[in-house]
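Inverse folding, one chain.
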């Protein structure tokens, strides 16, 4: 587990047993991985013994057999109790000490492979269930190494600018303000812009990356990135209180006169229009309006990035999609509020994750003292640009069930994101 490796299991001679679901989920105390087979609808489980650990390819044996199981709940239970992970981390072995640095002392930072994620909830055509996709050779061997994918107004610009000041990392488009590092290639230009043109915007022979915040929301990006680059890249997600993110995003739009906003635009008007649009689509799909958070796979691809700001804040939907379609060990999840409060500490975790050398304390202070692209209170901000108490309660009703699932997944027990916090 410390090395986040893939496991190849080989059959122990004469070791066939029949196990019940309870035995599978509660009786296995070792790190032995099992392969589940469904013969004549009887749940027969063949016990495997780990013979050796391999970095590449071994887990396909387990995944192939599990994908034939009708009872995905059983398959997922076996997967979770074995603590086997879909991903490897190229170039890095996460030792116990490095895990302690990332997860010790109460930090909310998480690596995807440390989550108790139910892969049985993924669509059967997702990368992690499809052997052809999972084992395919990447299309390119010259990918940028780091992708900050969102959320919009979650601190992505600041994090990208901090990284770009590291002597071993070179960012792109740093003079474009809130658009620093944004290429939009995987979200909107994947089918129209040649790879050579995309790559020409990045430095050669140096660690680099991009910060296209639409990548979190566009449901096709995880598979596109995996198809293009495989396991060679690292993905970073920042998740901010969705109500704060919504209000900050509106302020930025007004400040930039973007998305048909101006100095007279009212946040309540935009909010109600987006709610009407969002729930109109839910109703057309005949979704259970009382339990939307359980229909996560049906809620994908409903909007393009920046098309509906409320939808962008349904983080559980988007993160679930990334975990189904991209190696979990290559995904780092940050809490934006923690990043804003302790930028040095969180930035140091990011450097560790992408294998960049630590920085001198004075240099680290100098880098993280700046706040790039703040949502910012416009001077003498009128009330109609701020969420009212009624607006907050309305949004909180929408976000709460999704936030609950997100907190359970990330083990954010002390995070509430309640409406009274903003």
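Residues assigned per position:
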């Amino acid at each position: 587990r410390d090395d986040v490796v893939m496991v190849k299991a080989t059959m122990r001679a004469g070791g066939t047993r029949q196990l019940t679901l309870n035995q599978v989920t509660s009786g296995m105390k070792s790190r032995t991985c099992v392969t589940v087979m469904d013969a004549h609808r009887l749940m027969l489980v063949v016990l495997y013994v780990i013979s050796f650990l391999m970095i590449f390819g071994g887990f396909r044996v387990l995944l192939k057999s599990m994908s034939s199981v009708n009872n995905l709940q059983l398959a997922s239970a076996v997967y979770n109790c074995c603590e086997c992970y879909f991903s490897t981390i190229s170039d890095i072995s996460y030792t116990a000490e490095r895990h302690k640095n990332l997860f010790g002392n109460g930090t909310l930072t998480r690596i995807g492979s440390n989550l108790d994620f139910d892969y049985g909830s993924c669509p059967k055509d997702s990368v992690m269930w499809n052997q052809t996709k999972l084992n395919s050779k990447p299309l390119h061997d010259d990918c940028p190494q780091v992708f900050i994918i969102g959320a919009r107004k979650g601190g992505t610009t600041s994090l990208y600018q901090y990284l770009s000041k590291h002597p071993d990392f070179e960012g792109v488009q740093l003079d474009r303000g809130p658009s620093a590092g944004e290429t939009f290639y995987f979200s909107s230009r994947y089918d129209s812009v040649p790879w050579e043109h995309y790559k020409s915007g990045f430095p050669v022979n140096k660690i680099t990356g991009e910060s296209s915040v639409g990548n979190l929301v566009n449901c096709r990006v995880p598979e596109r990135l995996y198809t293009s680059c495989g396991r060679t890249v690292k993905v970073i997600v920042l998740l901010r209180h969705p109500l704060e993110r919504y209000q900050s995003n509106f302020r930025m739009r007004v400040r930039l006169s973007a998305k048909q906003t101006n100095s007279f635009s009212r946040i309540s008007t935009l909010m109600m229009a987006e709610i009407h649009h969002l729930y109109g689509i839910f109703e057309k799909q005949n979704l259970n309006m009382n339990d939307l958070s359980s229909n996560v796979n049906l809620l994908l691809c409903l909007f393009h990035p920046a098309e509906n700001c409320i939808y962008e804040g349904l983080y559980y939907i988007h993160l679930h999609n990334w975990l189904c379609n991209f190696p979990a060990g290559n995904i780092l999840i940050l809490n934006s509020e923690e990043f804003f409060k302790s930028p040095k500490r969180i930035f140091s975790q990011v450097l560790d994750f992408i294998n960049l050398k630590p920085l001198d304390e004075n240099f680290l202070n100098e880098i993280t003292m700046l706040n790039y692209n703040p949502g910012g209170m416009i001077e003498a901000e009128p009330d109609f640009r701020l969420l009212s108490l009624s607006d907050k309660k309305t949004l909180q009703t929408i976000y709460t069930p999704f936030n609950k699932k997100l907190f359970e997944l990330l083990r954010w027990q002390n995070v509430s994101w309640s409406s009274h916090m903003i």
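Residues 1-96 have pLDDT under 50 and may be disordered. The beta strands are 6-16, 35-39, 42-54, 110-111, 146-150, 169-170, 207-210, 234-239, 331-335.
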